[in-house]
Amino acid sequence: MTEIWRLDGVDLDRLDRLASRIALNLKSGDVVTLSGPLGAGKTTLAR
User: Fold this and answer.
1) Three-class SS of residue 47?
2) 2, 13, 24, 40: which one has the fewest Cβ atoms less than 10 Å from its Cβ?
3) Model-level pTM?
């Protein structure tokens, strides 16, 4: 299944909570791609 989410104006606290929720729902073999401009928070989300 493919899901596409678009996030605009997410602060660091919300980004951390979102990352935790995503991590809890990932299964072995799932693939997550992050795209966005420089400074969008991709690395922060991935950590």
Assistant:
1) coil
2) 2
3) 0.65
Other C-beta atoms within 10 Å of 4: how many? 5
Closest CA to 6 of 18, 20, 24: 18
Closest by alpha carbon to 18, among 31, 8, 27, 28? Answer: 8
Q: Which residues contact 42 (CB under 8 A, 6 or more apart)?
A: 34, 35, 36
Q: pLDDT by residue (tens digit) across 1-47? A: 788 888 787 788 888 888 998 899 999 999 999 998 998 888 988 88
The span from the CA of 8 to the CA of 11, in Å, is: 9
Neighbours of 11 (CB within 10 A): 8
Entry field: residues in the chain: 47
